[in-house]
UniProtKB/TrEMBL annotation, chain A:
PROSITE patterns: CRAL_TRIO (PS50191)
Positions of the CRAL-TRIO domain: 45-194
Purpose of the protein: Part of a membrane-bound complex that couples electron transfer with translocation of ions across the membrane.
UniProt xrefs under HAMAP family: RsxE_RnfE
Swiss-Prot/TrEMBL keywords: Cell membrane, Electron transport, Membrane, Translocase, Transmembrane, Transmembrane helix, Transport
Protein's name in the database: Ion-translocating oxidoreductase complex subunit E
Organism from which the protein derives: Breznakibacter xylanolyticus
Subunit description: The complex is composed of six subunits: RnfA, RnfB, RnfC, RnfD, RnfE and RnfG.
Record-stated family: Belongs to the NqrDE/RnfAE family.
Gene name of the encoded protein: rnfE
Superkingdom field: Bacteria
Cellular compartments annotated: Cell membrane; Endomembrane system
Gene Ontology terms describing biological process: electron transport chain
UniProtKB/TrEMBL annotation, chain B:
Physiological role: Part of a membrane-bound complex that couples electron transfer with translocation of ions across the membrane.
Gene Ontology biological-process entries: electron transport chain
UniProt-recorded name of the protein: Ion-translocating oxidoreductase complex subunit G
Gene: rnfG
Cellular compartment(s): Cell membrane
Gene Ontology CC, one term: plasma membrane
């Protein structure tokens, strides 16, 4: 597999949200607006890239039987770093995402890539994989957030498209997340099959 | 390089080293971000105070006072003074009666308790319903929308009800010592947020609590203050 393929893999072919259906908790939880989706996606991307890199570097020192706890500790460290930095330097984003940041630790996609990719590949390829997966995840969350924000409150990235009174409130609430995600997956599947 | 074998000593050592390194780096980042986090919090508080009281030239944060409400919650009072004269108070108030979790509001009042403005600091109400309280209880700009008028007059004709714009949802200019600050459904003067009565009740509860606590501190009359906290059983639809 060449480097470009590793990177592009996460964008569509093995997109974490649309194809692997991993990390559904943040996907459904934070995408009530496009901005939230993008913020969560980028935070996850950072954690993915950093944890993939570190795990690829230290994989040979970690005995097989304790690799999972070791990976979790490494991932949790980066998540805490993201949480504290966001609280310090991006307080407004933290106000809307704060609750979900600690959940990145248990996001299957992060541990999944550590286990399936980073523990078998060199650091450079692992970084590429993390970047591709992270951007695919960000893209999916931003798309889902845009659809929900547009249908629910008539805005995209807080930019008013039509008056809020005509929006379908259900799309901002939890059931709308499932509906929108289902339709998006159906459309993506159709596009991929074509 | 050969993979480290899974012997007990190896496993213990590896986990220990990883834990120590992560612990140390987290400690370092914590130290690094501690000051900016506190600054961001103080800035948010300060911006909220500025929003809800008239212009002042003292430092309300330095003169802040922690007060106890009747039911034992801790409220913070920030006096705003201009040239030594009290021009308003900002009270950081909260309620536990929300639909989900705590609601924190910064309420700005004139020295006699008349509400100047408010700002919701923190809440976990339903987005799109209860979350509307961030704007709902402020005076509205008149709707320059002809279709809205038509709709309301149609509703009037159909149901014989008061047009939805005709109610009073703004709490600005009200004085909890004189006005009945509970939702109109419970016999008060404030219209609840459509489909979010619990959140509206909780909001008013927090505002009235701010007034009561401040009034006790400043010895204002609390006669007319009615219990926005009392909920009638079986009526708690959101």
């Amino acid at each position: 597999m060449n480097n470009w393929k590793i990177f592009a893999n996460g964008l569509l072919k093995e997109n974490p949200t649309f194809t692997l259906l991993l990390g559904m908790c943040p996907t459904l939880g934070v995408t009530s607006s496009a901005g939230n989706g993008l913020g969560m996606g980028l935070a996850t991307t950072f954690v993915l890239v950093m944890s993939n890199m570190v795990i690829a570097l230290v994989k040979d020192f970690i005995p097989d039987k304790v690799r999972i706890p070791a990976f979790v500790v490494i991932i949790a460290t980066f998540v805490s770093v993201v949480e504290m930095s966001m609280q310090a330097y991006l307080p407004s984003l933290f106000a809307s995402l704060g609750l979900f940041i600690p959940l990145i630790v248990v996001n299957c996609i992060v541990l999944g890539r550590a286990e399936a990719f980073a523990s078998k590949n060199n650091p450079f390829r692992s970084i590429l994989d993390g970047l591709g997966m992270g951007l695919g995840f960000s893209m999916a969350l931003t798309l889902l957030g845009s659809v929900r924000e547009f249908l629910g409150s008539g805005k995209i990235f807080s930019l008013a498209i039509y008056p809020e009174d005509y929006g379908m409130l259900v799309f901002v609430l939890a059931p709308g997340a499932f509906l929108a995600l289902g339709f998006l997956i159906a459309i993506i599947n159709k596009l991929k099959a074509a | 390089m050969a993979k480290t074998e899974s012997t007990l000593v190896n496993m213990l050592l590896t986990l220990l080293v990883i834990a120590v390194i992560s612990g140390a780096s987290l400690g370092y980042v914590y130290k690094l971000t501690k000051a900016p986090i506190e600054q961001a919090k103080a800035a948010k508080q300060q911006a909220a105070i500025k929003d809800v009281v008239p212009e002042f030239d003292n430092d309300p944060l330095a003169e802040a006072k922690t007060l106890q409400s009747e039911d034992g919650l801790e409220l913070k009072m920030f006096p705003a003074k201009k040239a030594g004269e009290l021009v308003g108070v900002a009270v950081e108030t909260l309620t536990n009666n929300g639909f989900s979790g705590e609601i924190r509001i910064m309420v700005g009042m004139q020295p006699d308790g008349t509400i100047i403005n408010y700002r919701v600091l923190d809440h976990k109400e339903t987005p799109g319903l209860g979350s509307k309280m961030e704007e709902w209880f402020r005076p509205q700009a008149p709707k320059a929308d002809a279709t809205a008028d038509q709709e309301t007059s149609f509703a009037k004709w159909l149901y014989g009800i008061k047009a939805s714009g005709g109610g009073n949802r703004s709490i600005v200019g009200m004085n909890p010592g004189k006005n009945k600050m509970i939702v109109s459904k419970d016999g008060g003067e404030v219209d609840a947020i459509t489909a979010a009565t619990i959140s509206s009740r909780a909001f008013l509860d927090a505002v009235v609590r701010a007034y009561k606590t401040y009034a006790k501190e400043a010895n204002l009359s609390t006669d007319a203050v009615s219990g926005a906290t009392t909920k009638e059983g079986g009526k708690n639809y959101e």
